[in-house]
Amino acid sequence: AQKVTQAQTEISVVEKEDVTLDCVYETRDTTYYLFWYKQPPSGELVFLIRRNSFDEQNEISGRYSWNFQKSTSSFNFTITASQVVDSAVYFCALSDDPTGANNLFFGTGTRLTVIP
Amino acid sequence: KAGVTQTPRYLIKTRGQQVTLSCSPISGHRSVSWYQQTPGQGLQFLFEYFSETQRNKGNFPGRFSGRQFSNSRSEMNVSTLELGDSALYLCASSLATGTGGNTDTQYFGPGTRLTVL
What we know:
Helix content of chain A: under 10%
Largest sheet of chain A: 6 strands, mixed
Oligomer: heterodimer
Number of strands of chain A: 12
Strand content of chain B: over 45%
Distance between the termini of chain B: 37 Å
Order of helices and strands of chain B: EEEEEEEEEEE
């Protein structure tokens, strides 16, 4: 069974602080894909990153970075020097499909509030 | 390029009624997926359509159904509405080539917020 756990329900940080959002997953598949999405107050989910199970390289994109560790089944997301515009709900998700189109399992989300 | 559009954006219905929601994917996208988001259950996959065929379905009762037209537009229908069906319904479209290329990801619409009274 697929399962994604985001233990942090809500996090508040002061602007310019770094923050890490945790994601732990469970799957029996050997090939799988992990995703992070951002949901701003408007409600529309915005794709941030996809990582396949064979690629444990960490990734950095501007202020965002992701740490994928198969040994601990974790795919954590760090925002460096947070900004008010980063305030949103962030979802980690898991699929056996590279697009995630035909069965995407979401975590419960972490609401990040960045205080100016 | 226009994004995914969903209509209507807001809807109020009463128990027992039925409702149809519409989703227009990004031009060229053949896959449309539907999700239900509620405070209690979070984001849950409903079903996915590709080239007018349902490829996968989540764990929802038969009251939830959908279809896809030849132009890739999709509709989902909920019959005999229950209070618990109140939710944000999101649709997403993708190329779904299966290769996982950089541009082959899901793009979400703004959602339809359904309130059942």
